[in-house]
Amino acid sequence: MFDWAYNHPIQAALAGTFFTWSITALGSSLVYLFSKASKKVFNGMLGFSAGVMIAASFWSLLSPAIQLAEEQGMNPVFQASAGFLCGGLFILLIDKFLPHMHVMTQHKEGINSSWRRSILLVIAITLHNFPEGLAVGVAFGYAATITAGSPAALAAIGGAVALAIGIGLQNFPEGAAVSIPLKREGMSKNKAFMIGQFSGMVEPIAGVIGALMAITMQSILPFSLSFAAGAMIYVVVEELIPESQMMETTKIATIGAMLGFTIMMALDVALG
């Protein structure tokens, strides 16, 4: 499997992000089984997702970026810092100008728009998940730039696989956390499921873009890896953490975040 992923990084990125999308759809399908879920469960889900994304940002993206910058004779501090901040700024600008609505709070952001609520929700979900797909794609593309068969190449592919698995794990509760509240607000099960699984539909597109960036622009690969990390952390701090702490059961969200971080860290160390 690792040889195939090394020789076909774009297809590997597509396969990895189709996996993450399918897990999102699986989580979203829980709307057919449950019409509501407790606040504690939702807080735990969001906290878990936040923990996975924080761990993935460092272990799968920032750490390889710093190491690669050193190997290429670049300034690792500048490459990691600039890429990280640019990734966050990129999502900030989209967040500021693109009309969308947060799923949990129903808060509208971006420029004023008369678009329907369902469209605004889909845009928000797409904005949230684009960095995740981008990160998986960049990780697979990065692995393909290392000397074939070397321990570093195998470690990089293992890290990319771990990242895809980790993103998939956190996408399951994420899909449920979107679809079930929408059903509770009166939306039909089918429509709630469709909007919920939309949260992963953008990931294959972003994955291919990320892999192409990593392969064709190897000179800025440390920057690209850090960019993906910054975009993910922005989403965590802007959305997941605040929404998980809205209720009184904040300790559940904190425990979920710790668990998610640990699982993602263990996956990356074991496979990478």
Please provide a written account of the structure:
With 272 residues, the chain is mostly helical. The chain has one domain. Helices cover 80% and strands 1% of the residues. The protein contains nine helices and two strands, in the order ααααββααααα. It has helices at 2-7, 9-28, 39-71, 76-97, 117-144, 151-184, 189-216, 221-244, 250-271; strands at 100-101, 108-109. It has a two-stranded antiparallel ribbon with strand order 1-2. A hairpin with a 6-residue loop joins strand 1 (100-101) and strand 2. Helix 2 runs parallel beside helix 6 (151-184), helix 3 (39-71) packs across helix 4 and helix 6 (151-184) packs antiparallel against helix 9 (250-271). The longest helix has 34 residues, at 151-184. The chain is globular and about 55 Å long. The chain starts with a helix and ends with a helix.
